[in-house]
Amino acid sequence: MNAFINHFSFEFRTGIRNKTLLLMNYLFPLGFYAMMGLLMTGINPAFRETMIPAMTIFAILAATLLGLPDGLVTAREAGIFRSYKINGVPAFSILIIPALTTILHTAMVTIIITTTAPLFFDAPLPVNWLGFVVTLLLMAFACAGFSVLIGVVSPSSRMTVLWSQLIFLPSMLLSGMMVPYSMLPEVMSKIAQLLPATHAMNAFRGLAQNLTADFNPIGSLIILLASGVLAFGLAIYLFNWDSRNMTRRGHPLMALLVLLPYIIGMFLLS
Amino acid sequence: MNEPVIQVKDFRKIYGDLVAVDGISFEVHRGEIFGLLGPNGAGKTSTLESLEGLRTPDSGLLRVMDVDPACQSRKLHKLIGVQLQNSGLPDSINLDEAMKFFCAYHGTAPRYDLLDRFGLKEKRRTQYYKLSAGQQRRLGLALAVAHNPPVLFLDEPTAGLDVASRIELHNLMRELQKTGTTIILATHDMAEANDMAGRLAILLQGKIAATGTPLELTAAGVGFTKVSVLTKNSSLSDPELNFPAVSRRIVKDEYIIYYSTDIGPTVSAIIANIEAQKDTLVDLRVERPSLEDRFLEITTTGGVQ
User: Fold this and answer.
1) What does the alpha-carbon distance between residue B9 and residue B27 come to, in Å, rounded to a whole number?
2) Among all residues of chain A, which has the CA nearest to that of B82?
C-alpha cells in the first residue's frame, strides 16, 4: 500500500512537473475554455446551456487522449518499464496509477470550470449534481481506459498521436460539444455513438442539466462503464514491458474489442 | 562458497533466425563474483536479461536461488538487484524520489546514504534528465543495491564512470562479496574483470569459448610472455643471437624485446649471455600475457571449447 501511495504521489506530481502533461492537463483545457467562453457565448448564446459539460468533456479528452498514451509509449521505449519490472512494480500499477492521477487532474480542472463559468460566462450550473459527478467519473474512466489501451498497443509515439486524434477530433465535431447532436445527419449521429464523448454529453444533458437527452442517458452511462472496464482489462492483458522484446499475450488488434459496447449501443439506444 | 546460487543449463535464446545463446551452461556460487566477457552480440546481455526475468529462454534451465526467472517474477525481484545496460527512469523523478519509489516496492527503508556514497549528495533534488550519463549510472547502481539483494547483476557498471566512482564501485562490490552477495558482472573492461572476478566465462557467438579463473584463462592460452631487456653495452644487439623458447625479437626504445613461450629458460639464457659478455644488466621486465591478450586470442581465433 505504501508503494502504491508513493507511486500515486509521484505520478500526480509528474502531471504538473512534466511540461507536456501540464499543458494537456491544465493549460490547454483551461485556455480553450476561456476562449470558448469569450467567443462562443457571443456567437451562440445557447452554448451557455451546455458549456460546463462540454468544457469538462474537453478537459477529459485533452488530459487523457492527448496526455496519457504518449507517456506510456515513451516510458516503454526508454526502458523505464524494464526497471519497473525488475524492481517489482506491477503492470497494474503502471497502467492504473497514471490513469487515476489524470482523472484527479481533470477533476481539478472541472472544479475550476464549474466555479468560474457561472461567474464569467453566465453558464448554468448542473441541476442534478449526482448525475453530473457520476457522468463525469464514468467519462473520465472510459477515456482513461481508451488512452491507456492506446499507450499499450501503440508501437511508437507517432502512432499514438494518430490513434488519439482518431477519437479526439471526431469527438470535438460530432459528440454534441460544439454542434448539437440532434442537428447531425442520421448516419453521422450513428457514427457519433461510437465516441465516449457523445454518450457523456447525452448523459450530462439527461441526468445533470435537466435537458432533453438524445437517447437513453442511463444506457450511455452503462456503455461508458462497460468500455472503461473492457479497455483497462484489455490494456492489462496486452501490456508489454519492453519495446525491444515483444512478448505480448494477444494481437494488438484485440484492442478494437473496446468498441464493442458502443457498437451494441448503436443498435439498442434510440 | 559451494552453494550454487545461479544455475544455467543448456540455455538457448533465439531471435528469429539468430541464435543469440546456444546451449550454454554454468553455475555461480554464493559470494562469488562471476565475470561474463565477450564481444558485442556474443550473448552476454541475453543471458543476463533472461536471468533477470526480462526475457524468456527458448530452452534450457535457468535458476536464481531456485527461482525460475521466467515464471516467478514476484519471488525473483526480492532476490536480485540489477544495474541494466539499457534502462531508464522517468525524466522528472529526482534522486530522493527514485530511492523512495523503488525501496517502497521492495518493502525496505530508503537508502539515501548510498546516494551520498556514490557522490550524488548534491544532486538529491535534481531531476533524472538533468544528470550526466555517469551520474545516471551511479544512481542505477545505488538503486540496484539499496534493498540488499543476495544476487546482483551488473551490466557494464563502470562504463562512463570517473576514476573515483569506479574505485567506489569496486570497493562496494568487495564489501558485498564479503557479506555473501553473489555478483554477475558483464563487462568489456578486461582490467576490471581481472581484478574483480573470481571466475570468468568468455562468450563467443552464443557459446562459452573459455571459462575459469583469470589466471587459468591467461595460462591456458598460447600467448607469448614479453621479456624486455636493457643492457649497458650491446651484448644482445646481434640479431642472430638465439635464446631458448624465443619466437620473435624486436628492438624498441633501446630495449631488446623477446617473445617467449617458456619464460624460465629464456631469461636464464639471456642473463647468462650478458654475464658471459661482461655486460651489465640495466633493466629487465617480464610481462605475462594479459587477460586482454587471451580474450583477443579467443575472439580472433573463434575457438569454442
Assistant:
1) 8
2) A86
* Minimum distance, in Å, between the CA of residue B104 and any CA atom of chain A: 5
Scanning B190-276, the segments in alpha helix (DSSP H) are 190-196, 214-220, 263-276
Would you write out chain A's pLDDT as a tens digit for each of its 270 residues? Answer: 789 999 999 999 999 988 999 999 999 999 999 999 999 888 888 889 899 999 999 999 999 999 999 999 999 988 899 899 999 899 999 999 999 999 999 999 999 999 999 999 999 999 999 999 999 999 999 999 999 999 999 988 889 999 999 999 999 999 988 888 888 898 999 999 999 999 999 999 999 988 899 999 999 999 999 999 999 999 999 998 876 665 667 788 899 999 999 999 998 886
Distance from the B143 Cα atom to the nearest Cα atom in chain A, whole angstroms: 9
Q: Are B258 and B270 in contact (CB under 8 A)?
A: yes
pLDDT at B221: 66
Interchain CB distance below 8 Å, A245 and B54: yes
> Looking at residue B210, what DSSP letter applies?
E
Which 8-state DSSP code applies to residue B67? B
Q: Which residues of A touch B106 (CB under 8 A)?
A: 87-88
Mutate to test the interface with A, among B51, B105, B125 (most CBs of A within 10 A): B105
The sheet that has B225-231: what strands, in order across it?
B246-252, B255-260, B225-231, B281-287
Interatomic CA distance for residues A164 and A162, integer angstroms: 6
Instruction: Give which of A86, A90, A184 is closest to B77, Cα–Cα.
Output: A86
pTM: 0.82
- Chain B contact probe: residue of A86, A94, A246 with most B CBs at under 10 A: A86
Burial A186-206 (b: 16+ CB within 10 A, else e): eeebeebbbbbbbbbbbbbbb
Q: Determine which helix (DSSP H) or strand (DSSP E) holds B255, and give its type and residue range.
A: strand B255-260
- Cα–Cα dist B111/B172, whole Å: 14
In chain A, which residues have their Cβ closer than 8 Å to the Cβ of B82?
86
- Rg of chain B (C-alpha set): 24
Strands B199-204 and B207-212: antiparallel
How many beta-carbon pairs below 8 A join chains A and B?
74
B241 Cβ contact list (under 8 Å, min separation 6): B273
Contact A211, A49 (CB under 8 A): yes
**Grid coordinates in use for A74?**
515513451
